[in-house]
């Protein structure tokens, strides 16, 4: 199975999701999104494939989330996706992409739904 994980090696949840994939014999493509952020086009495609709204991909505990007032309902999905592209630290990590779909995998066990 092909899988891609948008990974932050400093995040325990991200490391746990990666470990769950590997325990099941899946060696995913690892994208350290803070070093190699997805483009706006890539983010739009991931969010669309997920079937979720952009807000599901926002890390609400990130300091920048509060600073930018992203909880405010005035922001449309397109604007929120642009914030994600501009500030990759806002990504609700890890995000896993498989043939079964795309999901932010928090808690890490959510990755199992994509296998």
Rounded to an integer in angstroms, the radius of gyration calculated over CA atoms is 13 Å
Topology pattern, helix = H, strand = E: EHEHHHEE
Proportion of residues in β-strands? 5-15%
Distance between the termini: 8 Å
Look at the structure and name the CATH superfamily: Glutaredoxin
Number of strands: 4
Secondary structure category:
alpha+beta
Principal-axis shape: globular
> Low-confidence parts, pLDDT < 50 over ≥5 residues?
none
Sheet having the most strands: 4 strands, mixed
Give the rounded overall mean pLDDT. Answer: 97
Helix fraction, binned, reads: 25-40%
> What is the number of domains?
1
Strand order of the largest sheet: 2-1-3-4
* CATH class category label: Alpha Beta
CATH architecture: 3-Layer(aba) Sandwich
How is this structure best described in words?
- Helix content is about 35%, strand content about 15%.
- By secondary structure, it is an alpha+beta fold.
- The protein has a single domain, classed as Glutaredoxin (3-Layer(aba) Sandwich), CATH 3.40.30.
- It has a four-stranded mixed sheet with strand order 2-1-3-4.
- Strand 1, helix 1 (about 10-25) and strand 2 (about 30) form a beta-alpha-beta unit.
- The chain is globular and about 45 Å long.
- The model has no long low-confidence stretch (mean pLDDT about 95).
Question: Quick recap of the structure?
Answer:
This protein is of the alpha+beta class.
Task: Detail the topology: elements first, then pairings.
Layout: E1 3-7, H1 12-23, E2 29-32, H2 40-50, H3 63-67, H4 77-86, E3 95-98, E4 101-104
Parallel strand pairs: 1-2
Antiparallel strand pairs: 1-3, 3-4
């Amino acid at each position: 199975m092909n899988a891609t994980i948008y990974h932050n090696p400093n995040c325990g949840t991200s490391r746990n999701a990666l470990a769950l994939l590997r325990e099941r014999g899946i060696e995913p493509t690892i994208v350290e999104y803070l070093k190699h952020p997805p483009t706006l086009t890539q983010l739009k495609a991931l969010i669309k494939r997920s079937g979720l709204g952009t807000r599901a991909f926002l890390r609400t505990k990130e300091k920048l989330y509060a600073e930018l007032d992203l909880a405010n309902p005035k922001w449309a999905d397109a604007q929120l996706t642009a914030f994600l592209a501009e500030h990759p630290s806002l990504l609700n990590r890890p995000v896993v992409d498989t043939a079964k779909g795309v999901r932010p995998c928090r808690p890490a066990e959510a990755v199992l739904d994509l296998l």
